[in-house]
Every structure is written in C-alpha cells, then in structure tokens.
C-alpha cells in the first residue's frame, strides 16, 4: 500500500508535471504562427473595397467575410459604371448583375442575370450557404433573394440611364458590342488563419444582349480558389475568359509551381492564342494570390491596375505587366 508520504510526493510530482505541461501549452499557443493577411482586387476602385475587407482580416476574421464586405462597397458605389448600382445596363435598359463567391472549403455560390438587387454577392453567398444548389439565374435568383429578405431596388442610376439613351441614339440599337465599357471587381483575400476566399461581381459588358452572362459568375472562369494553392479572378471580356476556364487555369499553373504573375501571364497568352476571332480587342486581365501571400497580375493591354492591401502595402499598383 502506498504510504501517505509517498502519496504526497507523487501528487506533488504530478502537479509539477501538469503545471509544466500547462505552461508549454500556453507557450505553444503564444508562438503559434499566424499568417500576415492580405487582400487584392481588380482596378483602382478596388482600393476602397480592400480597405473594408482588411478591417475584417486585421481583426482576425474570415477571408470569406472580408471579400463579401469588400466588394459590397463597390456594388453600392454609383460612380463605378460596371458593378452593381450605377452599372451600365444591357441594350434593353436592364441592369443585369452577375456575381460569384468561393470559400476555403471549396463551397461555391453564384447568381447571374439578377435584376433589382443592390448586393448580388450576398445573394451568391446565400445560394452557397442555404440551398442545395450552386448557381441561380434570372427570375429564380430574384425570387430567392426577395424570399430571403433582400429588397427590390432600381439599379439604373440616372447617369447610367442617360449614357444608355445616348448609346441608343448613336448605335440605333445595332447589336454592336462596346469592348471598352466593362470592368469587374474581383477580390481575393488571405486571412490570419491562412485561408483564402474570393468574390467577383459585375454588371457585365455595357449594352450587352439581354440575357448575356459573362465569366464573373462562372466558377473556374471568373473566379477560382483552391485553399491548398491559392486563388485567381479576372476582369475583361468574359467570352474569352470562359473559353480557357481562365481562373481555374491560373490556379492550376500555380499548383505546378508558377508564381502568381507567371500563371496570370501564361493564362493571358493562352487566351489570346485560343481566341478564334484573333481580334485586336481581346482584352482581359487576371489577378492571383497564393498561400504564401504572394500576388501577381497580368493583362493583355497596358493600363490595367490592381489594388493591394496588407500591413506592408496599401494602394494601387499601376505598372501591371502586359502582352501588347
Ligand atoms: N468580365 C466581365 C464580363 O465579361 C466584365 C469585365 O470585367 O469587364 O461580364
């Protein structure tokens, strides 16, 4: 039988070991490496969106929440003529919106040709989280949004309406496409937990045919995330990006060891090479972010800009490399 003295000695040793273990746990918690968060997005209007997203990232929040909150800023900005409210309508005067979102678990949600809703990105997130589907379009997407508490809003701003009326006079409703009047916000974020998510939202090409859907809501084309590797998103002529599954291609090239910039460049080269029309106006660009927080971008033409926000840098990168 264990003596009282031995029992006390054994208890003291156990307590000491427990204390040492507890201290070690605290130390290991304190030294657990957190990742430096970063958010990147397309175009100069991405700066305001990034700032909003970074508030969430710097507070330790999830990349998914950051990208949704970030692009909502652009969706509500009447001065951005290619996203959300203030976006240019189709040739019949309808502002039809496309959006997609993808998280670190490869959950996906998209809406396309959605009208009269201020924040299509939030509807896309709801499709992802609350339905057994991944993609809703048109009337069905609108009904789903209204059933879930979104309000109907007139998305045609007075300025966009005036521009459209002018366009009607000039083109006489010819099925001509304006290759210049388009720009999407695509956003990628890496959070302190090392997880990547992405969001993409647009009103698409100005004066497009009614019912036209671009690359932005198509997972793999306008947006793709693989949390083991990184993410990519695009802006520009959706028809050309869809043809090469652009964002998926960029992520797969990063998987093979390409840097984010090299992967975007290779995708742009593939897109131009594969375009059957070989038109001079094949114009698009990609941005990419990898698990290490390294980012890169490449576009067909000079003049493309991206916005970056981390603890080290905040602002607009104007010297994006280009093909032509
Ligand atoms: N990619 C978008 C679309 O084709 C528009 C853009 O980014 O310029 O709808």
Task: Report on the architecture of this protein.
The strands form two sheets. An eight-stranded mixed sheet has the order 4-3-2-6-5-1-11-12. The protein is globular and about 60 Å long. The chain folds into two domains: 31 residues; 284 residues, (Glycosyl)asparaginase (Glutamine Phosphoribosylpyrophosphate, subunit 1, domain 1, 4-Layer Sandwich). It contains nine helices and twelve strands. Helix 2 packs antiparallel against helix 3, helix 3 packs antiparallel against helix 4 and helix 8 packs across helix 9. With 324 residues, the chain is of the alpha+beta class. About 4% of the residues have low confidence. Aspartic acid binds next to strand 8.
Provide key terms for this protein.
12 strands; Glutamine Phosphoribosylpyrophosphate, subunit 1, domain 1; binds aspartic acid; 2 domains; 8-stranded mixed beta sheet; 324 residues; 9 helices; globular; 37% helix; 20% strand; 4-stranded antiparallel beta sheet; alpha+beta
Mean pLDDT: 90
Q: Structural class, from helix and strand content?
A: alpha+beta
- Tally of separate domains: 2
Mass-distribution shape: globular
Radius of gyration: 24 Å
By DSSP, the count of extended strands is 12
CATH superfamily of the largest domain: (Glycosyl)asparaginase
Beta-strand percentage range? 15-25%
The CATH architecture of the largest domain is: 4-Layer Sandwich
Discrete helix count: 9
